[in-house]
């Protein structure tokens, strides 16, 4: 018999924190806290296996589940000494999702379950608080109808609003028990009207209905989008946690709150959280009321006049403090906790490793090493390499002039600038048009997820540091300012008003998520500071890693940035980017429309000094480190104008007949340029090109070596090779030109010649090719395109759909496809090394900066990865994690 | 010590016919004939290894070659009892190339070598024929100067022409010994003037010079082109044959000729050849004088009044007859022989397996089985499968009206029609423009090779059945009419005149290479007759082969043709071709611009009956045989108009706003359509499409099964799959639609679902994919494109250059790339069978009709190949050869 259900509570539990895969994060940690003797309301967890069984059998449950649930309910009844459905003193439960990975707000929850027309009366008597009882009942009906019965929660809110209008009241708190009683009747009538069935009165029916709805919400659109964004496989499933309700809204001696054991924004080692008196947990997270500080220190710092929990409920606070220290020591990580105080009694509802900004993650990791909680390698493993990105980008220049128009909470650090967008759709539209948007909302909800992904930054008028907007933005690394109370948003007029200044949709604003400032227009930025905790973690990472990290850089500026970020050479210099400069493109075009080798050579002779100076600059910046220069790669038509007007203009500038130019454009046009006359095919057709580029490289190397006095290590790379014969053909031109330059200069440069492995055939023929190549550099962008037969430029539409449908787990252009592309890389490594054991192996596709792909590269035995400058630290950390992980 | 030189002559030889790779075809056969005791002028062969050593060391010879050559010359001197360079009675030699495969006219030859100012006098005395001696000397100087010294032979001809003008003479035969003496002096003066060096007088220098020139000619442009066309690797090299001269031009008792042991055009078992009295061998081949028939029977048939060899030289004829019978029995194949009669003494200069038309090849093979010379399997192996193509295409309808404007010799069978082109360049231009050309020349030379490749047919005014034009055209399967004497070609006026009718360049003519007719305009054609020898060989082939042969057919007409050609089912029905029909494309476009699933379904509902009737027709034609139908493959934009004018027109026809249409066209445009939103990606994005196509297939199968009473075997094929998940996603739509149709009809159709393997990733993931696939069909066109990263549409330019440079041996789109694409096929076969041992495996790329690729498919263990209807017999034969070969 499969065990589907795991109970917890009363200082014991059937599960542990280690059983996250089976019980979900929430369920496993509730079990763990219970076993630790902490005050956890009793309950039980339906495992993720129930979820998978539910979907596998077309949304029905295993036969033996019912009996196990009945037993678990009985257990909770025993611990609480209440009965589920008891008309006198009913047991009420919450029903919550809980997946292996946290997916905040993505799935459905039902609270106060167990109320019906009878038990509500019992609750009123038992709590001696009829208003509380009917308030809970109306909340339950609305929530259950929305989540389980598929009705719209706005309709229920409208019913309440109508009542308030009639009564001329403004706040829910002004409504009495009798008002809620009437509203409950109207709610039930609304359900019958819409569904032709009464609201369910059987509490067991309620329980199964809610469990089914939570399982179903695993496949709702929001959850699917979130999983796609966070690389969570659908096959993990969610657990369902059913737990006795405790109430923070039973009066002034009750409260509910959330807290972090350290500051999740800065990482500072101080207890940090918010609470609301006489409220349910959802009220804190939703950000509808602005919450109070937990500690007195935080209250003073925030300048709040509302009492802290430390002052308001000193006993509960003392217990909470004791518990958080136990939890942090136990989990050896910063915890994100939820608690409720019911009539002065503290209950723990959740603990989990807290989400944090990258800055905080670095500080916490470094601090915990100092506190002897974790080792250096554990500290390195604690940082999400991809999240470093947040730190590496510019922040606002403090000296830049700025017109501050308002402020809010510094909810997620970093600066962002963009056009005001008042809806998610608008933010998506702006982003798709290639511009940047700031999503401005009163408060965000899970339905805004796509807009938050699309926006460069998020600004909300309501909500605290733990509001939906703040939590999600931090997770994504988007700058966010929340709770900017002075901000008025006019959806009809499509304007926002900040302290009297009106801005309309499309106007540019800047937000600083590190200070909470909102600024009109664009503000100058400065480079990030890469010292302190960041430098410490990087130092530990560099001690641990085995692979070298190089950069893809075409300009001195990129090369310099990358070297500052710790790049150990250039893995890919794309020479074509150097030709797009205005003065050069004309010469390049002369070369392209040349009718014969002589004219081509004349134009190339003009390009030679330009290329040479580019290369010399790169060699100087990278002196002592290897620099891989790829020969001209794109098809020549990319350098020519295409529109008729542009052609006329260019022809004029070039002093050629427009028909000559047009003919050449037409002759060079290709059906599939990605698979066209490019790469080494160009070098073979026009040997003058590799000859000129080699001259430029070797002459520049001689010059840079003389200037710096250091060794210059040029690696000449031949792109798009599919056979040894191709490489040999190009290599002959390279070697001839290099020999000529070196003989004339009387200086020997120790250059190497290698090849991209970016076509399936190159991977398969790696044993041949290795005979002629000093190095392989895997061009996984093109290798992915050809292995899948997918043009990256044309795939956005269907790849997104593929991920939604689960046909693809990852976008293969972001994370290397280990099963297909990866096998070709492994084949090439094995065959290449078979022939030449010391062949140098690297990767220069964009996967070089993707942590999962870096892990693959390490496993496969590559010597280095090369990535864009800003990804260098990410790759350094990912390479270290791969090394540690491998051990 | 390496043996570089092999002697022959005098009834013995150091080589044999089996040593073709070492001695070349000519050298090996000279050795063999000599060993057989046939009269062969003595000589020796420098092996192909000398050629390779020559190129490997930068055009210099091995050290020990000189001694071996000296010994061999001494051997020839002994046999002939003459001395090389002897001023009294000099030994003269010919120096000829001789590669492993025959390359007629592609490389250089030097005759009469050994003449100088002294030896010419000796020759005059020894032959008692000063005119012959000086005529030979002037021929030698001109030939040697052209071939070895790099001067232009036209300049030497001009010198002769000037003399004739001065003397008022018209024919070379009118010039006397003294005339030639003067001309010889002028020739030598011309050499000194141009080269600042005298014409070499040392006969050993002459010998080494000529040998070097022949080796060098292996790499001349003509030879490279010829090798590319005939798939001959450059690494084979050529041998050089140095042989004592015998003279057919010593008077009326001397002659020279070429003959085939059977008729090379029809295959008839009758001795067939031509000769010229008092001529050198080159005169026959060059077609300058119209030659005489060898046999009396042939003379009578041709209505010639010139005596046959049989009559003119009965003794020599009798010996020739005896020899040819010995040779045919010895080689067990039809021989192409060259001979010279010097003062009534017959000498054999060459024998080799004769080139023949495919019709002749079939007849000879069938006859030789009947004559017990060869086995049935040997007969099957004798036919070049690719050459069958000649027989399978239409010939002129004998009943069609035609305006015959002239006639010539039926030099290469088949009919061709096209624009008159007077130069090779013009023929190439016409062909590149997608039209057909007839190359019309006075006579062709090896320099015309590119024009002959480009032309649909060849017509010459001069030359016999063994002229250059005739031999090369037969080899290539191009129809050819040669020696149409009445044809006047005016290169200046760019016209031709045939019996008074003038036609200009660009006018259409038709030639019938089977009858020799030249016809004005285009003539109706009829289907080929596929019985007789062809049917016999096919029957033997079918007995021998193991693979099944299917066809790629989209229309009932193609399917019918293919079934007549022996196709055993359809391996690929491309459904998209069915949508281009005028009435359908509008509905297709409605489907494409539909904004939602509903509108799409409405349009698809209109397409359903059309598709159904197409499929029903195919099922009926192929009843009892499997029919593989591929779901819609191309990107949707292929069905939309692209030019602005066309868009306006189409929008009008569709009754939609032109801007709606334009928007859709722009939205669907792709950078690389080959790698775009196509194949199964379409089916996943628009599930309505596979659903409609499946309905059409299953409904049609039900209808056809009822109508024919035979089993209908539909195989539904999903294109462009890269993973099992994709196939599963599409399969779900297919199975749902099929189930629905079958349930409604109450009939079960035994359909299967399989996939194309046409992406590298599909090959690598074949083990997964096989779990969901009933069959794999290798789409080697796309697999080649993606494995090489080469767009077939864009590759013409650089692939041609690649072959010229030797970077690629074959065009991978014609012959499968065994090393790269082939490995992926093997991987997929092995992994697919590992999971599903009985998975059905086939190929449907164009390689399915290429004999070398068919051989690969057999070796790899495929169950069938599928090819275009006209290639079915080729594939049947190739599959048989693969089976026999494998044993």
Account of the protein in words:
Two copies of one chain form a homodimer. In chain A, 46% of the residues lie in helices and 18% in strands. The model of chain A has no long low-confidence stretch (mean pLDDT 91). Chain A starts with a strand and ends with a helix. Chain A has 887 residues and is an alpha/beta fold. In chain A, α5 runs parallel beside α7. The interface between A and B is large, with 48 and 48 residues.
Could you give the topology of this structure?
The structure is a homodimer of 887-residue chains.
Chain A: E1 5-9, E2 12-13, H1 20-35, E3 43-46, H2 48-56, H3 65-80, E4 83-84, E5 90-91, E6 93-99, E7 109-113, H4 119-127, H5 130-147, H6 153-167, H7 177-195, H8 203-217, H9 221-230, E8 238-244, E9 255-260, E10 272-277, H10 281-286, E11 292-293, H11 296-302, H12 309-312, H13 314-331, E12 335-342, E13 345-353, H14 358-370, H15 376-382, H16 389-392, E14 395-396, E15 403-407, E16 409-412, E17 415-421, H17 424-432, E18 437-441, H18 449-454, E19 457-460, H19 468-476, E20 480-482, E21 487-490, E22 495-498, E23 501-504, E24 508-512, E25 517-520, E26 525-526, H20 532-544, E27 548-552, H21 556-564, E28 570-574, H22 582-593, H23 597-621, E29 626-630, H24 644-654, H25 658-668, H26 680-685, H27 688-708, E30 713-718, H28 724-745, E31 752-757, H29 760-764, H30 766-772, E32 775-778, H31 780-788, H32 796-805, H33 821-835, E33 840-843, H34 851-860, E34 864-867, H35 872-886
Parallel strand pairs in A: 4-5, 17-18, 18-19, 19-20, 27-28, 27-34, 28-29, 29-30, 30-31, 31-32, 32-33, 33-34
Antiparallel strand pairs in A: 1-2, 1-3, 3-8, 6-7, 6-8, 9-10, 9-12, 10-11, 12-13, 14-26, 15-25, 16-20, 17-24, 21-22, 22-23, 24-25
